[in-house]
Design goal:
Length: 860
């Protein structure tokens, strides 16, 4: 990644000097086919940029990452590409007040999901292309000024192989062999987009009549690879799309501004989705090849709405620099759930948010790399790593609290004014706070300082003092604490709920008080005299962002009666709190696993259930004392199999338990059952072992040496698709063989032959919790290789390798010491690389502390 970075200071200097009037971009993509599956490695890119310079005679630069530049012309003067192009920048000297730059280059197709990605479908040999740029990979496709505040309109022209269709941000038409697209509104480089190939394409339309008598019609499109067409439920995608457009039109009072609305589900995608205006791209895994639970459909709907919210928060109004990434991502993350609850069938989406999204935020906020929601982004590598749980989930959580703080009407009116005031422009934090201050009448400065400009998560713990009879509350207080690393206490608006058992055995709320917390200890006076509770739930209804703790009586109630909680949100909040206690080394991992075994079978919310499965597995492999792991795995497998057999035949709960059983299966009887389910000699009533479930069963069989290369080859022949190939590669790398591990390591670390998707699959297979001894030698190799990998590979592949191959399963003090030694010896390594290693080190240290806590449980 040498020479490809861009600093904030450089961007600000260039933005102060230049303004861009428009781009014309011509791409010749005919080289994508015609040379067998290999195809050509490059394509022609011709860019014309018209821009102004407010200091004539000054110098600047344009961005381009390309193997070769054929010609460069500035204001009619031909420049020597060898002199002005260094591989990532084009030097521009002696600029005029008005300038025209023309760059003719050979750009490279990507296999890493960055720039213009080229994918060959193994099923039918068809070639598919798509672009992905955020934060700064448009320069891999055309010459530009790659920073968000130099917005401009774009005109794209594309020549493609015969029979292909091409899409871009604007509407397009084919004439004389060239696809020509309508000029866009002023947008940033990173949200321009091209998708090309023989995609399966479905159309629909959206119509909206407004109160002023005007009407809006938006052409809708949805596409995927031809091989996925039989699985593509475009009607549900369109349903959610229309519901979302209605919702945002109702609340934003600013008509969708970008013409058409296409949605492309593309292969080997690094992200969940990307908000390119008029042409949103998604990972194709949101097209479900087998049976999935409603949680998967809810997740897809959330992503559709998240990207749609970006049309206003991010595309119409864009942050000036990546410091204010939260201005788009936090809002979109909040609006995805807000819209799902308000407009779609997923009315319990806030439960998913509390249980899943906040879990991501809490983890990120306790890492050494935690940062304020408004972050300090020095350069593009910083920006790449800040698409994290703070920017997304914590930011969304803070916005949820802001809505409670200023009121929903004031919040939405602030958004409406923000759009109208800054349409097609760029903003900073203060621009949003000023409109919210106008609409709410509140001073937003202190709120922003507490919630947006400081890092860390507070813990809230109830203290209950009963009267002399023990029947009523004499005093109930909430204690707020902060870690030493981030000691700030914050204002919290919380609901405190009191729960007790009913005669029927249910655990239900009988009192609730909302209050503001400002001090280290706050007495909730309104609850004095209330009947003594069996459970006190601080942050009932999930109004604020905090870690919940319990008093001893409440914790004991949860140990015996967690499953009796009738309110699904309260239950989800308790599960989340117990998980945080486990991660913090306050609750032994075996106790958390015991709670899952005791009560998860009664969990009605499928998303919460699947989260519990993931947490239980993590507790087993990272937080349980090593001496207890085998027994813990046996208990989980036994419990999962029991719930699988007890679940309603054909239900989504049955499917979830089947997948979890496969994930924890290790003993020979369990592996034998998986083999029998695969070959059909054993059945579980109602359980359909479709192709995706077959691969889920084959994963553990391969990892435990019960499915060899021939078995996996036969399965690939059965499922000779792109998805099947990824599954097979993962399973092949999971086999318990030293030769297999050596080959997988070499394919990922020593070679760049694999695509991003196959790198990800190989890494996923390489690391198995049951193979700690087998992969132990790679801990030393890891620390010897990562700086070279970071230097030589793209940032996406670098991130995948550094995160994915960290020796997390070598969970002992020696690994922690080796990590510290690397950090000490590489103080000058790239900050983004050091951040990844520091995060992995923190996870390892947390695991060791949790294991020590769990070991004490053995002595009880």
């Amino acid at each position: 990644m040498p020479g490809e970075n861009l600093s904030r200071d450089e961007a600000r200097e260039r933005a102060a000097l230049l303004s861009v009037d428009g781009y014309e971009v011509f791409l010749d993509l005919r080289s994508a086919v015609g040379d067998g599956n290999g195809g050509a490695r490059t394509f022609r890119s011709v860019t014309t940029v018209r821009f102004r310079c407010n200091e004539p005679g000054a110098s600047s630069f344009a961005d381009l990452i390309a193997p070769r530049v054929t010609s460069v012309s500035l204001n009619g003067r031909d420049l020597d590409p060898g002199e002005v192009f260094d591989g990532s920048r084009i030097a521009l000297e002696d600029l005029a007040a008005e300038n025209e730059l023309v760059v003719d280059a050979e750009c490279a197709y990507s296999r890493t999901g960055e720039g213009l990605h080229r994918f060959v479908d193994p099923e039918d040999g068809e070639v598919y292309l798509y672009t992905q740029y955020e934060p700064a990979d448009a320069r891999r496709v055309f010459a530009n000024f790659e920073q968000p505040d130099l917005k401009a309109p774009y005109r794209f022209e594309v020549r493609a192989p015969e029979g292909w269709t091409v899409w871009s941000n604007g509407a397009g038409e084919l004439a004389d062999g060239t696809w020509r697209f309508a000029e866009t509104k002023p947008i940033s480089t990173y949200i321009t987009c091209v998708v090309a190939g023989p995609y399966h394409y479905v159309t629909d339309s959206y119509r909206r009549a407004f109160a002023d008598g005007t009407e809006l019609e938006i052409p809708l499109g949805a596409m995927c690879r031809k091989a996925l067409a039989p699985h593509f439920d475009a009607e549900d995608v369109f349903l959610v799309t229309k519901q979302g457009l209605d919702f945002f039109h109702d609340h934003f009072d600013f008509p969708y501004p970008f013409g058409k609305y296409d949605q492309a589900f593309v292969p080997e995608y690094n992200l969940g989705a990307m908000e390119n205006p008029g042409l949103v791209t998604f990972r194709e895994e949101y097209i479900f090849r087998g049976k999935v639970t409603q949680a998967s459909y809810e997740a897809r709907a959330n992503v559709i709405l998240h990207e749609m919210a970006h049309m206003w928060f991010g595309d119409l109004v864009t942050m000036e620099w990546w410091d204010d990434l939260w201005l788009k991502e936090s809002f979109a993350d909040f609006m995805g759930t807000f819209g799902a609850v308000g407009a779609t069938r997923f009315k319990d989406a806030w439960i998913t948010f509390a249980n899943r999204r906040k879990s991501w935020a809490y983890r990120a906020d306790q890492l050494p790399s935690t940062h304020p929601v408004t972050a300090d982004i020095r350069d593009l590598q910083d920006a790449k790593l800040n698409f994290d749980g703070i920017t997304y989930a914590k930011g969304a959580s803070v916005l949820k609290q802001l809505v409670a703080y200023v009121g929903q009407d004031a919040f939405l009116e602030g958004a409406r004014r923000y759009f109208k005031r800054h349409a097609y422009g760029n903003t900073r934090l203060g621009d949003l706070l000023s409109v919210l201050a106008e609409t709410s009448g509140r001073d937003m400065t202190e709120w922003a300082r507490s919630w947006l400009q400081t890092a860390g998560v507070n813990s809230l713990t109830p203290q209950v003092l009963l009267d002399t009879t023990g029947g009523r509350i004499a005093e109930l207080a909430v204690v707020q604490e902060a870690p030493e690393s981030h000691p700030r206490l914050r204002p919290h608006r919380v609901a405190v709920g009191l729960y007790r058992r009913t005669p029927e055995g249910a655990l239900e709320r009988y009192a609730r008080v909302e209050t503001d917390l400002h001090e280290p200890r706050t007495v909730v006076a309104e609850l004095a005299g209330a009947e003594a509770p069996e459970l006190v739930l601080v942050n009932d209804d999930d109004l604020t962002y905090c870690k919940i703790r319990f008093d001893e009586n409440s914790l004991e109630t949860l140990r015996t009666d967690l499953g009796a909680l009738t309110d699904p949100l309260a239950r989800a909040l308790c599960w989340s709190a117990l998980w945080n206690m486990t991660r913090d080394g306050l609750l032994p991992a075996r106790d958390f696993i015991g709670l899952v075994l005791r009560f998860a079978g009664r969990e009605s919310d499928i998303g919460v259930l699947q989260m519990l499965h993931a947490w239980a597995n993590t507790a087993l492999v990272h937080y349980a004392a090593p001496a207890w792991r085998e027994r813990g795995g046996e208990l989980l497998a036994e419990g999962a199999l029991g719930e699988l057999r007890a679940a309603e035949p054909g239900s989504e709960h049955q499917l979830a338990w089947a997948r979890f059983f496969a994930a924890v299966a290790a003993a020979e009887p369990d592996l034998k059952l998986l083999r029998e389910l695969l070959d059909g000699t054993t059945e579980v009533e109602g359980l359909v072992v479709d192709q995706e479930l077959r691969w889920a069963f084959l994963g553990p069989l391969a990892a435990h040496g019960a499915a060899d290369e021939s078995v996996l080859a036969a399965e690939l022949a059965r499922d000779d698709t792109a998805s099947g190939k990824r599954h097979q590669v993962r399973c092949l790398a999971a086999r318990p063989s030293a030769a297999v591990k050596a080959q997988a390591w070499a394919q990922v670390v020593e070679s760049d032959a694999l695509s991003n998707a196959l790198v990800e699959a190989t890494i996923a297979g390489f690391g198995q919790s049951s193979q700690r001894e087998l992969t132990a030698p790679y801990a030393q190799l890891y620390f010897a290789a990562i700086e070279r990998v970071w230097r030589e590979r793209s940032i996406q592949i670098g991130m995948d390798v550094v995160r994915g191959l960290f020796p997390a399963f070598q969970d002992r003090q020696e690994t922690l010491d080796a990590t510290d030694a690397w950090l000490s010896a590489h103080a000058d390594a790239a900050p983004a690389l050091r951040r990844l290693v520091l995060e992995a080190r923190d996870d390892l240290a947390r695991g060791l502390r949790a294991q020590a806590c769990d070991a004490t449980a053995a002595d009880r």
